[in-house]
Amino acid sequence: MKAKTSLEVGADGVAIITINNPPLNLLSADGKHGKLGFWSIEFITDILEAARKPLVAAIDGPALGGGLEIALACHARVSTSSAQLGLPELRYGILPGFGGTQRLPRLVGIHKALEMILMSKLVNGDNAQSLGLVDALCSADELINTARHWAKDILEFSRPWAVSLYRTDRLEPLAEARLILENARIKAKKQAPNLKHPLICIDVIEEGLMHGPRAALWKESEALLELRQSDTCRSLVYFFFARQRTSKVPGITDTGLIPRKVNTVAVVGGGLMGSSIVTALLLSNYTVILKEANEKALMAGIERVKVNLQGHVKKGKLAEGELDQILSLFKGVLHYKGFKEVDMVIEAVSENTFLKLRIFSELASCCQPHCILASRSSMVNLNLIGEKTKSQNRIVGTHFFSQAHLMPLLEIVRTEKTSPQVIVDLLAIGKKMRKIPVVVRNYTGFAINRMFFPYSQAALMLVQHGVDLYQIDQAVTTFGMTMGPFRMTDFVGFEVVTAMYVQFCNYFGQRYCESKLISIMQEDYRAGETTRKGFYKYDGESKFSPDPDIKKYVNKARSISGISVDYELMKLPHEEIVEMILFPVVNEACCLLEDRIVVKASDLDVASVMGMGFPEYRGGIIFWADTLGSRYVCSKLEKWSKTYGSFFNPCSYLAERALKRTPLGSEGQAKSQL
Question: Residues of 11-24 as b/e, b for ≥16 C-beta within 10 angstroms?
Answer without folding.
Answer: eeebeeeebebeeb
